[in-house]
Amino acid sequence: MGFIEVNSRKIETNEEGFLVNPDEWDKDIASALAMAEENIDNLTEDHWKVINYIREYYTEKKLAPMVRKVCKNSGFPLKYIYELFPSGPAKGACKVAGLPKPDGCV
Amino acid sequence: MEKKKAILEKEFEELSERDLEKGLAEFKDKLNAEYSAYLQSCVHCGLCADSCHYFLTFKDVKSLPAYKLDLVSRIFKRYFTFPGKKIPKWTGAADFDRDIIQEWVDTLFGRCSLCGRCSLNCSMGLNIAYLIRTGRSVLARLGLVPSGLQSTVDTAVEKGNNMGIAQEDWEETIEWLEEELQNEVHDPTAKLPLDQKGARLFYTVNPREPMFFPLSILAVAKIFYAAKESWTFSRGNYDVTNYGLYSGDDDAAGLMSDRLVQSKKELEAEILVLAECGHGYNSNRWEAPEWLSKKYGFEVKSILQIVAEYIHQGKIKLDPSKNKDIVTLHDPCNLVRLGGIVEEQRFILKNSVENFVEMTPNRLENYCCGGGGGQLAMTRFAERRIKTGAIKAEQIKKTGAKVVATPCHNCIDQLMELNKHYKLGVEIKTVCEIVADALVL
Fold this sequence. Notes:
The structure holds 2 protein chains of 2 kinds. By secondary structure, chain A is mainly alpha-helical. Chain A has helices at 27-38, 45-61, 67-74, 78-84, 88-96, and strands at 2-6, 9-13. Chain A has 5 helices and 2 strands; from the N terminus they run E-E-H-H-H-H-H. Chain A is globular and about 35 Å long. Chain B folds into 3 domains: 2-144, Orthogonal Bundle (Fumarate Reductase Iron-sulfur Protein, Chain B, domain 2); 151-312, no CATH class; 320-438, Rossmann fold (3-Layer(aba) Sandwich). Chain B has a 4-stranded parallel beta sheet with strand order 2-1-3-4. In chain B, strands 6-5-7-8 form a 4-stranded parallel beta sheet, with helices on both faces. In chain B, 53% of the residues lie in helices and 6% in strands. Classes of the chains: A mainly alpha, B alpha/beta.
């Protein structure tokens, strides 16, 4: 267990840097996670487009969206998603969007 | 830290006497003459110490393969041998109680990736990894499989694949990849077939490919296209993974493998072809006939064997100058040491890249990346996983390679994390992605 500090609040993360309580997520936490996990100090409009879509999808379905849906919704080509989030859609984008760790080989 | 400990202790406190009996019954059920002999044969020579990436990392007795084996042996002796029943203290036998069960969870799940390197270096030739898995089977019976690993098994059993992908999403992704392939090869007739009866090959994937990393599917489809192969996916059963191998739950494992067997029959395909997935190969090629207590009666091959055949038969043409960076290869334990696919990937890479370098040690003696045995799924032990990966990171650094190829999606994920944590500055790819880049159409 660890934590990230956001505006002098301590937000709990698990051993792999995912939020312990996904419901705690807000935009300041996303920025802090992006810095901690992806070394991104300034999330761009393109980052937010991906993050917001993943967050909305998760809020509705309690699942991470497939990368196909992320591409379709954002209009970004697949390779650009990997450039935006170097750790990939799961350990990069979904983690920054405050989702829990998905099952499977990730 | 405190919160985690509290959860764990609650799990053990809740175990009833009846639970402990169930655990011992499972243990008895798993024993055969071979395992019983192994459990009484360790001579404590210590040769296994330096073969284990946990021991090399932590240098503590709990990480010693002989110690891990002894944890299982103590219980075996206490309940299943005459001297152990009569004079337990003199024979190193121990009661199956909550304390030892707690140590089993921490050690058999948390300090072993079932990589089998200790067995290779064991002076008695004991199959230590399988005995540790037997201990995991007992823990699975008691409901003590660490959560991320258990939920991956549950998702696969309930949803048909280990990431819970809905069928329409799988189909939509395949349609999308088909368009991508058509654009790439400039041929509107290029296909990624679903449920095509009578195709020669029935190809399976790791759900992480359609979910998050579909370029590896596109790469294989491009190779099939170049070789003019007759192949198909299944609409329903395409998951090559089998986390029952890691959790120790043979019933769940058998159920998952049987889905592929049934789909292969329904599709009337000739060969079941397994994607680049180490444990998926070991499970579906070697273990499943044991879990299902029946012979397959058809061929099961790794995609690497198929691609190597294409090169041998001149069915695909490759230009190594299209891959100029130095490439090294990580051998997945389940595919290589435990699976027997050793030379195909080397032959393929030597035909696909200009500069191929081996890491040391390699082939059967290669070190686990640290992510095997279900470690990637068990968040509880993530810190240990990254620490044990230092050995692999060092191996990679020494090669000077810019690209690390590995025929296993589980290894890829761990290597991606090691790349970030140890600042390796490499690219991690599947073997088929590299082949696809070298294709001359």
